[in-house]
Amino acid sequence: MEPVRDFIVSRDDPWGRPVNPREADEIEPGSRWRCASPTIPLVPLLATLAAGLLDLISRSLPPRALMALAAGAGGLWWRLSAERQQVVDENLRIALGDDLDATARREIGRAACQGLARVVAEIALADRLFGSGRGAAQKMAFYGEWEALEADRAAGRGGVIVTAHLGNWEIGAFGVRHRGIPLRAMARPLRSAALEAWLERRRGGAERMIRKTGGLKDVLRELKAGGWVALLADQNAGRHGLFLPFFGLEASTFPTPAAVGERLGVPVYLGICLRRPDGVGFDIHLERVPTAEGVEAATRDLNRRLEGWIRRAPGQYNWVHRRWKTRPPGRDRSEPGQPSYARLWPANHPKTGVR
Predict the structure, then answer these.
(1) What's the CA gap between 245 and 233, in Å, rounded?
(2) Pick from 21, 285, 332, 349: most CB atoms within 10 A?
(3) Which contiguous run of DSSP H or E holds residue 291?
């Protein structure tokens, strides 16, 4: 069936989510797509029930019990999908292949899935864990260039905090706000309206978020007004990203943080929130990223810094994501090191290049 203009979803999309026609150019040439049903009633119902269940168990279970439940759910999620295990294994071969054997890769993959489940549990517990100033002080420690950030804030300057799907980025945002920085974060809404509403409540309201689709104008407006914005910049940027090394293999990378910093002259920081080994607290690290040498150099530097933090805690990174999916135009399957999930594009494809 030929692609259609209004409703396009992939074969494995269970949500029946319409794709914006402007996103239709992301379809791989030659792939088969189908019209989506406007809704699939069972999926929204299950999502609504899941949101209610999260509220119930976050109020009822002790934190350690909820963390154990999340770890069990994450381990089950890992075991149930051979495809997920393959993606993680290939990603770890690319990133840490010389340092790990197959057993170590499986252990890190399992820990990564458990960590992603714990992110949800920790968000659900945020009010209980950090609701008081004393609780936050006991469970969060701050390292790095926080005094520089607070000086920027005191001088009336806005800025960008770049982060990654490492540790718990949501708790990291909570920590920034705990220090008096009125942070807004850009994110893509969840497919489920019920789960998105649950997450907005846990984040403190929709006003703390900027929707990713069409949100760049809001980011610029916030920064010009002296505000602070958090951007996740570690995922595949598609055919319009900068192709820069990430663990030695070119990856399509979002240039937005560095580009915004250069355009407006605002500071750019890298923030990383890692779980402590005892599992009961977080260490939130901050470092200034220079942007004077241009967007590409700053983005390359961000990738390098992220590599270092991921190596420190590989089990806390989201290895499930297909980070190297989009290959530079004109590459073929002979490129050494590329994963089997790589998407190839002809060199003369009309919709390639940084926008």
Answers:
(1) 14
(2) 285
(3) none
